[in-house]
Design goal:
This is Aldo/keto reductase. It is an enzyme of class 1 (oxidoreductase). Its EC number is 1.1.1.-. With 338 residues, this protein is an alpha/beta fold. Strand 9, helix 8 and strand 10 form a beta-alpha-beta unit. It folds into two domains: 243 residues, TIM Barrel; 67 residues, no CATH class. The termini are far apart. The model has no long low-confidence stretch (mean pLDDT 96).
Length: 338
């Protein structure tokens, strides 16, 4: 396991982080085994959020007795001081700890949300107060708009930033990672498999591992998945492999979707998933989870072409800050069904 100093925090963190978002979907004993095996194997970065159902409670139940062995990161999705303070206090309770190593302002994707979180009575002030009280060590920011995140971190108010980085979403490399490096911040990459679309896992994990990040968070739910992820990082990435991975990321990222979720579909098509998986599907095919997504979305995808209000001017495309051809890609996805 590779370890690096996490920005200017002084903490040494493992290159692979345990993403606990999906633990609420498995039996408690399976979650317990996965978390403890991860710690046994040297993973020392645990990532969760107040919004991840009872994920924080699972962490408290399963590994709080090993609290000194891991760097604990959680998140508040609240934007105002009072609600954020209450959520952080609940998080401490649920995880059976008196200190959160990293508290992140969660899922900030619009200028309005950022302003609300940063104003005098905003969530950021609550995080600062918890830091003064000794219940939070560092403050971070997460979101899906890398170019906006790059601007928001430039004033030096955050210790860490969390962002997408995978073979189908390499966009953080342009502005965000260089700015975070200039600010000497902790750099945490998430969704190396893009929610279960990118295969093979070994290649997917090695792409963010090859880039200038400290930790790659992978959502793991079993001992076998922990083993698979650790194995993918066992060898360092050489120059030839790095060039191969970067060329592949250029190809798979051609959809240009950042998963900012500004778009919404009146018939319920999950547009970002289709946009991001479109290139992956053509090149590698889909993992079982990705195939399951397409089967669940089948009726909606097939209905897109006939939805009258969108025929001349698709509603989703009017909301997209990147002006992407969403309806065209969704209609092409209909070919997936034969």
């Amino acid at each position: 396991m590779r370890y690096t100093t996490f920005g200017s925090t002084g903490y040494r963190v493992s290159s692979l982080g345990f993403g606990a978002m999906n633990l609420p979907g498995v039996p408690l004993e399976q979650a317990r085994a996965a978390l403890n095996y991860a710690l046994d194997e040297g993973i020392n970065y645990i990532d969760t959020a107040a919004a991840y159902r009872n994920s924080e409670e699972i962490i408290g139940e399963c590994i709080s007795h090993r609290r000194s062995e891991y760097f604990l990161a959680t998140k508040t999705g609240k934007r105002d001081y009072k609600s954020a303070m209450e959520e952080m206090e609940r998080s401490l309770d649920r995880m059976k700890t008196d200190v959160i190593d990293l508290l992140q302002i969660h899922y900030v994707n619009t200028v309005q949300e950022f302003k609300a979180a940063m104003e005098e009575n905003g969530a950021y002030q609550a995080a600062l107060e918890m830091k003064r009280k000794g219940h939070v060590r560092f403050i971070g920011l997460t979101g899906h708009r890398p170019e906006l995140l790059a601007k928001w971190i430039s004033k030096g108010q955050f210790d860490q930033v969390l962002f997408h980085l995978n073979l189908a979403q390499p966009f953080a490399l342009d502005e965000l990672i260089p700015e975070a490096t200039r600010q000497q911040m902790g750099k945490t990459a998430m969704k190396p498999l893009s929610g279960g679309f990118i295969q093979p896992v070994s290649k997917a994990i090695r792409y963010p591992y090859s880039q200038d990040v400290h930790v790659t968070i992978s959502g793991m739910i079993s001992v076998d998945e922990v083993k698979e992820n650790i194995a993918a990082m066992r060898e360092e990435v050489g120059d030839d492999e790095r060039r191969e991975l970067e060329a592949l990321a250029t190809e798979l990222g051609a959809h240009n979707c950042r998963r900012c979720n500004y778009c919404s579909c009146p018939i319920g098509v999950t547009i970002p998933d289709i946009m991001i998986s479109s290139q992956v599907r053509r090149t590698f095919g889909l993992l079982p989870k990705g195939d399951g997504f397409y089967q669940k979305q089948k009726d909606k995808i097939l209905s897109c072409a006939d939805y009258e209000p969108c025929k001349e001017k698709p509603l989703c495309q009017q909301q997209c800050p990147y002006h992407l051809p969403m309806r065209q890609v969704v209609m092409e996805a209909a070919g997936y069904f034969g």
